[in-house]
């Protein structure tokens, strides 16, 4: 069923109509088969780029849509509802552009952002390492300046779009000064010494490649340093605050898709001479699912509107990520229950939705980390 949205402008209503059409006609028909075959749909990212969807929250000057986050996230939700791997990929690409768009020099922005926002280049975000996940300041991938190049060595882990991205927004260690010794490099995929390990064999989001990225004496031009040496951790944490809202929107889209599937099945499935949707046990389950979806949507929209007004939104971002991803896990699990035995088969997409709902509770900061951040903000208020 279409979501009843309150959008700020007629322009944004037209944009969401376009997004809904692309999601319905181009994404959803391919999702199940491509996920099962573990096919990465690069052509769809090119299509979204040509349609203006890869740079929605960024300035028109570089080919962006200059849309408020309130609108961008609702567009992202529609895409994730049709195909979660594509929604997550769009969120990751948007976050990968964040460092350059917000901390790059004007010359760097003019040089690279048009292709990044226009669909010619696909991005990846390389922060995590095997021993530096939640503790981002512990990363050890090292970059040493030699003349006009950085010599980079180390391994990045759990990188979405590993091996298929055209650029990697990469956090590296340029000094031993703890969190103050981290810098940000915009690394081209063709960089000598950069390679992708074999893809991880994942529970869900199998259409989206995830792997380690290996830096072995990789030489990165010094003009690809973003924000100056030592500013990488600040850039990374700022990026994640916005990126968490993207994951929250994706989780809501996934939960909405599961709810829609459950409602449709419950209306058509009969037992004891009437639709199972008429039984109070199912009615209450569906009602709780709908309440969870709408509540989660409200949390990410509240955070987005604060961001759009220039207000602090860090706590609200953590709340939205926590509520939306925990809610998606519950709603997709309940959707499988509504469909019963059919829900446990691959003849219906809810089993895939349930598998896909798990990882949003983990990436962009685990939900345990979100609880810690929320509690810390309360204590420091």
TrEMBL record:
UniProt KW keywords: FAD, Flavoprotein, Oxidoreductase
Acyl-CoA dehydrogenase/oxidase C-terminal domain location: 230-378
Annotated Acyl-CoA dehydrogenase/oxidase N-terminal domain residues: 9-119
Keyword Oxidoreductase: yes
Pfam families xref list: Acyl-CoA_dh_1, Acyl-CoA_dh_M, Acyl-CoA_dh_N
Known cofactor(s): FAD
Domain Acyl-CoA oxidase/dehydrogenase middle: 124-217
Record-linked InterPro entries: Acyl-CoA_DH_CS, Acyl-CoA_Oxase/DH_mid-dom, Acyl-CoA_Oxase/DH_mid-dom_sf, AcylCo_DH-like_C, AcylCo_DH/oxidase_C, AcylCoA_DH/ox_N, AcylCoA_DH/ox_N_sf, AcylCoA_DH/oxidase_NM_dom_sf
SUPFAM superfamilies per record: Acyl-CoA dehydrogenase C-terminal domain-like, Acyl-CoA dehydrogenase NM domain-like
Protein name, as recorded: Alkylation response protein AidB-like acyl-CoA dehydrogenase
Gene source species: Amycolatopsis echigonensis
Lineage: Bacteria, Bacillati, Actinomycetota, Actinomycetes, Pseudonocardiales
């Amino acid at each position: 069923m279409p979501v009843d949205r309150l959008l700020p402008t007629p322009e944004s209503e037209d944009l969401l109509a376009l997004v809904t059409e692309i999601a319905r006609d181009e994404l959803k028909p391919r999702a199940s088969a491509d996920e099962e075959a573990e096919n990465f749909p690069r052509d769809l990212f090119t299509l979204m780029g040509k349609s203006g969807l890869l740079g929605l929250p960024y300035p028109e000057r570089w080919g962006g849509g200059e849309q408020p986050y309130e609108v961008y996230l609702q567009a992202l939700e529609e895409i994730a509802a049709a195909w979660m791997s594509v929604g997550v990929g769009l969120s990751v690409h948007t976050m990968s552009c964040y460092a350059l768009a917000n901390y790059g020099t004007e010359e760097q922005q003019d040089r690279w952002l048009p292709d990044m926002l226009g669909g010619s280049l696909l991005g990846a975000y390389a922060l995590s390492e095997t021993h530096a996940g939640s503790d981002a300041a512990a990363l050890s991938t090292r970059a040493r300046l030699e003349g006009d190049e950085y010599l980079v060595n180390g391994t990045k882990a759990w990188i979405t779009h590993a091996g298929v991205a055209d650029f990697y927004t990469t956090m590296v260690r340029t000094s031993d000064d703890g969190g103050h010794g981290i810098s940000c490099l915009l690394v081209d995929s063709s960089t000598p010494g950069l390679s992708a390990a074999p893809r991880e064999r994942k529970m869900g989001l199998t259409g989206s490649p995830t792997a380690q990225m290996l830096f072995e004496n990789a030489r990165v031009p010094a003009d690809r340093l973003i924000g100056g040496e030592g500013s990488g951790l600040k850039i990374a944490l700022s990026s994640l605050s916005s990126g968490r809202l993207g994951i929250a929107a994706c989780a809501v889209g996934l939960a909405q898709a599961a709810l829609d599937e459950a409602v449709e099945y419950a209306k058509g499935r009969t037992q004891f001479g009437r639709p199972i949707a008429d039984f109070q046990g199912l009615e209450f389950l569906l009602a709780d699912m709908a309440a969870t979806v709408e509540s989660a949507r409200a949390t990410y929209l509240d955070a987005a509107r604060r961001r759009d007004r220039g207000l602090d939104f860090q706590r609200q971002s953590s709340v939205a990520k926590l509520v939306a991803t925990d809610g998606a896990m519950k709603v997709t699990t309940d959707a499988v229950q509504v469909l019963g035995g059919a829900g446990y088969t691959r003849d219906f997409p809810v089993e895939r939705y349930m598998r896909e709902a798990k990882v949003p509770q983990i990436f962009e900061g685990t939900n345990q980390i979100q609880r810690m951040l929320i509690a810390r903000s309360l204590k420091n208020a």
